[in-house]
Specification:
heterodimer; A: about 150 residues; mainly alpha; Growth Hormone, Chain: A; 6 helices; about 65% helix; B: about 200 residues; mainly beta; 5-stranded antiparallel beta sheet; 2 helices; Interleukin family protein (chain A); cytokine activity (chain A)
Chain lengths: ~150, ~200
């Protein structure tokens, strides 16, 4: 089902742009992708979008951000900004998901399983940094599929 | 550490999505007391073991105010804390009572200037920052039932609203809107301007 949730994409993109180079420099494994392997998010059907977006927000909130703490105070502040924005957006998405009864189709369930497998295939800090470094892949997909 | 009292009267001043933490100075005769500020969002409380994040611009500052706008950048509940430092001695943390959410910011009406340039009705709005959009209402005086509206996502210096009838008077008012917190200010005072020329000139 459709879920229209207003979310400060501009603020999240600005926060991520400020630390993207720093975060991506901490990811030595350039040949692997968490979000795009083996298939891109763009292949997800529109009916599954609401569900997989919620799952991805939960993935970042529960698993990714907490393992991204760095020695750099500026980077930590921007990660906090993004994490709190994701938390706020996920809450609204969750409410919408319940109202619209966003059912998770087979495809999005399979896609999300693949993302978790990619994540668990690395040690947790590398996986978290790589996932954070791929945030613009998620943001681009969300904006394109609006 | 107990020798140095914690800062008191800690509060947040928030207007138009600009947020400041303030506190009372800790007085130690003949010494310069410094302060350090940290923040904690809902994410840190719920998912990061209640961790706190220092604000470097307000670390070891002598000021008793800290601009926290950059860090209060999500619509969730935040807590702030500040402590005093004198050499190696540090006070206990003084923490804001309750939570602060940027949705609580007070919104003032936009500063507006209506301009009649010949037959053109223009409006000039003061920039209020990246979070702000504007809703401008305008109508011909005496035709209050036929109000028109223009939504402005960004502020450009001057915006053309309408082409006016010669000699007629037109009125304008505006309110600011913040999408991130889904709230609007009250309307600015109405301003009216008269179009150049009078009707008889047009009848010739």
């Amino acid at each position: 089902g459709a879920c229209r949730v207003s979310m400060s994409m501009t603020e999240i993109r600005a926060g991520f742009a400020a630390i993207k180079a720093n975060i991506q420099s901490r990811d030595p494994i350039r040949t692997l992708s968490i979000l795009s392997h083996p298939h891109s998010l763009h292949k997800v059907q529109s009916s599954d979008r609401c569900c997989i977006t919620y799952q991805l927000f939960t993935f970042y909130v529960d698993k990714v951000f907490k393992h991204c703490r760095t020695e750099d105070s500026f980077v930590n502040r921007k990660i906090s900004s993004i994490a709190n924005s994701f938390l706020s957006a996920r809450r609204r998405l969750g409410q919408c998901r319940e109202q619209n009864n966003c059912v998770c189709g087979e495809e999005s369930t399979e896609k999300f399983k693949q993302i978790l497998a990619n994540y668990e295939g690395l040690n947790v800090t590398s996986a978290a940094m790589k996932s954070l470094g791929e945030l613009d892949i998620l943001l681009d997909w969300m904006e394109k599929s609006r | 550490d107990a020798l140095l009292p914690a800062p008191q009267r800690i509060s947040i001043l928030s207007t138009n999505m600009k947020h400041f933490l303030t506190w009372s100075p800790v007085i130690v005769q003949g010494a310069t007391v410094r302060y350090s500020v940290e923040f904690q969002g809902e994410y840190e409380r719920e998912y990061a073991n209640g961790s706190w994040i220092p604000i470097s611009e307000c670390s070891l500052t002598t000021a008793t105010i800290c601009n926290i706008t950059e860090d209060i950048s999500a619509t969730v509940a935040y807590k702030l804390r500040v402590r005093a430092e004198l050499g190696a001695t540090r006070s206990q943390w003084g923490t804001t009572k309750g939570f602060f959410n940027r949705a609580m910011t007070s919104l003032t009406p936009p500063l507006l200037r209506a301009v009649a340039e010949g037959h053109h009705l223009l409006v000039e709005l003061a920039d209020m920052g990246p979070s702000f959009q504007f809703r401008v209402l305008y109508w011909r005086k005496g035709q209050e039932s036929r109000v028109q509206q223009k939504l402005m996502k960004e502020v450009s210096s001057v915006v053309h609203l309408d082409t006016m009838e010669a000699g007629a008077e037109y009125c304008v008012k505006a309110q600011a809107h913040v999408e991130a917190i889904n709230r609007s200010s009250s309307f600015s005072p109405t301003q009216c301007v008269r179009a150049q020329g009078d009707r008889s000139m047009w009848l010739v």
